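ingest -> validate -> predict -> emit
validate: passed (alphabet ok, no gaps, 328 aa)
predict: started
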Amino acid sequence: MMSDVSARRSGALAALVGLSLLGGCVDVPHPFRHDGSGMQPPTARLAVPVSTASGTDEAGAQAWQHAMVEAMLAQSVPAMGQPVKPGDWWLKMTTTAQDDTVIPTYAVMTPKGEERGHMSGAAVPAAQWQAADGQAETRSAQDVAPGVAELLTGIQAAQMQKDPNSLKNRPAHVYFAGVQGAPGDGDHALARAFTAAFPDAHEDLRHAATGADYTVRCTVVLNDAVTTTSTTPQQHIVLTWKVLDAQGTEAGAATQIHDIAAHSLDSRWGDVAVAAADEAAGAVRQIITRYSGRENAPLAADGTLPTPGSAPTPAPAASTAPAAPAQP
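emit:
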């Protein structure tokens, strides 16, 4: 026999059938962006100078540089085709001759000129590499760009792992700014339910935005203008849970949307708030995880890509200590 609590939860879910997360705008971590996690990223950009590799003529080198910049921008890496400037991380592109082929190699270099990671592209027939149309260089750049982006992500993860204040080594400090726009007691009920559901070993809640890594706020919009075939009057409700990083940049948003019986939430939300907040809490955790890169595998010691399936860093223990301000 179903318990009273289970019956109430079942009724709440039935009242909110279809109220589900629509994926939101969850950002993939950007390897060279400060994410408010207390770590300093490699740089604000990745310089891509013209290659001086032997066997690549000037026109081919220019085409290679242009193609590589475009390919990295497509991977959300802020690459710039320019000579290396002080403080730049940069991509060194070289070639190795092997029999009648050319093997392009891509190395991520630190501002001190030290190689931090590398990968090789597929071998290309020498005649094609030296062709004036630059198509071989363009294809190589497009093929390796995802791998180079993974190298950069691995570099960031390795830095985070060494930084005791990064989100690999402590929970994210989150400020919940509350709920606005819900009918009835929805603002209060949703806020109370989210506050209860959200904290875990990876996140804790703070009472102020100062020192928080992320801020979460929810807005609710109720619309009476619903087109439906139902004989019961309907309303359209949308809950948007927005996550902002410490700099105020949107890290992602999760949206819950459904048509409900008109005025069914005009007074008490009850377990409907609990069901919605439980789902939203999981989505917000996912946004923070993906945006911060805290589960990304660090680059291997030999500077190659992380082994596929590498285990993520163990979850940090919950902390009640005040959050440290993010580094500039």
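The CA atoms of residues 45 and 149 lie 13 Å apart.
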